[in-house]
Amino acid sequence: MKVVIDPDLCTGCGLCVDTAPEIFEMVEDIAQVKIDDIPDDLEEAARQSTDECPSQAILIEE
Predict the structure, then answer these.
(1) What is the mean pLDDT of residues 19-25?
(2) Which of 24, 46, 51, 52 would be 16's cystine partner, CB 3.0–4.6 Å?
(3) CATH of 2-61, one of 3.30.70.20, 1.10.1760.20, 3.20.20.70, 3.30.160.390
(4) Which 3 state secondary structure label does DSSP give 18?
């Protein structure tokens, strides 16, 4: 699984970082993905971040 953030949609709220700090980080007020391939034990956190993103900027690629 891979996670991608659309920087044009990201509002920089940081909810993804709060939900999954192992996956996401804030860089210049925009969220970025820290790891290329999401390990199995973090897949649920990645999905939760996607579901909770208010701007729908997080996309999951299986």
Answers:
(1) 98
(2) 24
(3) 3.30.70.20
(4) helix
What is the pLDDT at residue 27? 96
* Residue 7, pLDDT score: 96
The string of pLDDT tens digits covering residues 36-49 is: 999 999 999 999 99
Report how far residue 30's alpha carbon sits from residue 42's, in angstroms, rounded to the nearest whole number: 21
How far from 7 is each of 39, 40, 41, 44, CA to CA, in Å? 23, 25, 26, 22
Compute the CA torsion angle 5, 50, 34, 42 (nearest 10 deg): -160
